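[audit] Reproducing an earlier prediction to check determinism. Same input, same settings, fresh worker. If the tokens differ from the archived copy the diff job will pick it up downstream; this log only records the rerun itself.
[audit] input (207 residues):
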Amino acid sequence: MKRLIFLIAFWLVTLPAFAADFAPVWKYTILPHEGGYSNNRHDPGNWTGGKEGKGRMLGTKYGIAASVYGESLLKQGLIIKHLTPDQARRIYERDYWKRFHLDKLASQGIARELCDELVNMGGGGGESLLRWVWLETEWATRQKIPVPPKFTPATIQWINEWTRTRERRIAFYNSVKMKRIKFYSELVRKRPVMRQFFYSWVDRSLD
């Protein structure tokens, strides 16, 4: 099944599109990886204060963590434990897909890959990854990229223009995938305690 999904994603990245669609990214990528409800009291993400024993222990569901969303959801009358898939989907679409302008990408495959790494790494990690992709692209082409490695409308427009050809779409897509693995390797090197998550991260990046 994973190989089939990978082949479909690879096929999609080679095709031009008018605008990427969030629905399959949520259904086939984010939701399967983020999982259901977790109430491990030792997980700091399950506490509204971001530390074990700090604030309220509301847990995490579909990757929606109490440390990030617990208090704001409570103000809306929502409890993480009772979130529906559709409610979680709307949060991801708002805070990742649209916030980082991925809805303006032309390639479905590239949009899928960038969205998943932003969900997994956060905005800071995503921009670190883009910097590595930029450096590799500039080295390979001997050309200076005219936009910063940040998720701005100008950068998204440049990606669309740069990846118009099938060859460049594949190269850009593969570069993002490989830089994800590099990011995880660097993180584990700096924080050895994170080694326990390394193989699942790599598996996710290659899925």
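[audit] rerun output stored. Observation attached for the diff report: Strands lie at 37-38, 60-61, 64-65.
[audit] end
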